[in-house]
Write a structure and sequence with these properties.
The chain has about 140 residues and is of the alpha/beta class. Helices cover about 50% and strands about 20% of the residues. The protein contains 6 helices and 5 strands; from the N terminus they run H-E-H-E-H-E-H-E-H-E-H. The protein has a 5-stranded parallel β-sheet with strand order 2-1-3-4-5, sandwiched between helices. The longest helix has 19 residues. The radius of gyration is 17 Å and the shape is globular. The N terminus is likely disordered. Keywords: Phosphoprotein. It comes from Leptospira soteropolitanensis. This is Response regulator.
Length: about 140
């Protein structure tokens, strides 16, 4: 009887750990529809946190020490993706940062990748499989 109880406890504990072991991912985009779509694409694989601006994203990073990945849209009002990432790295330098944009790869983004500020560049429309494969390699994979 005791073994059955222990097995049940172990199964519950294991299942609880599986549910709580999702890595956290912050997605930043000024378009609310993109935030909903991104969350929907990745909710089964990550704890997805969203922010609609660079300022909001800085606040979310400050509040969520468990964030391992950040993917930011490049073109946003007030603060573009690289400006946000530069500020974010001052408070959270050990996160994998990526840029997602509907525009061509710019010299500014290429330099950020070369300087290791940005681990990867993704194109819009986003390819969930491409992003998932990259992120599944783990934090700070370059």
């Amino acid at each position: 009887m005791g073994k059955g109880y222990d097995l049940s406890d172990h199964t519950s504990y294991t299942r609880m750990n599986e549910l709580n072991n999702k890595q956290s991912l912050l997605y930043v985009d000024d378009e609310i529809l993109n935030l909903y779509l991104f969350r929907d694409y990745f909710k089964d694989h990550f704890e997805v946190i969203v922010a609609q601006s660079g300022k909001e994203a800085i606040d979310k990073l400050s509040e969520n020490s468990e964030v391992k990945f950040v993917i930011s849209d490049m073109r946003m009002p007030q603060m573009n993706g690289l400006e946000f990432i530069t500020k974010a790295q001052e408070i959270r330098p050990n996160i994998t940062y990526c840029i997602l944009t509907g525009y061509d790869l710019t010299p500014e983004i290429e330099k950020a990748i070369g300087d290791k500020k940005v681990a990867r560049y993704f194109s819009k429309p986003l390819d969930p499989t491409e992003i998932l494969l990259f992120l599944s390699a783990g934090p700070n994979n370059e």
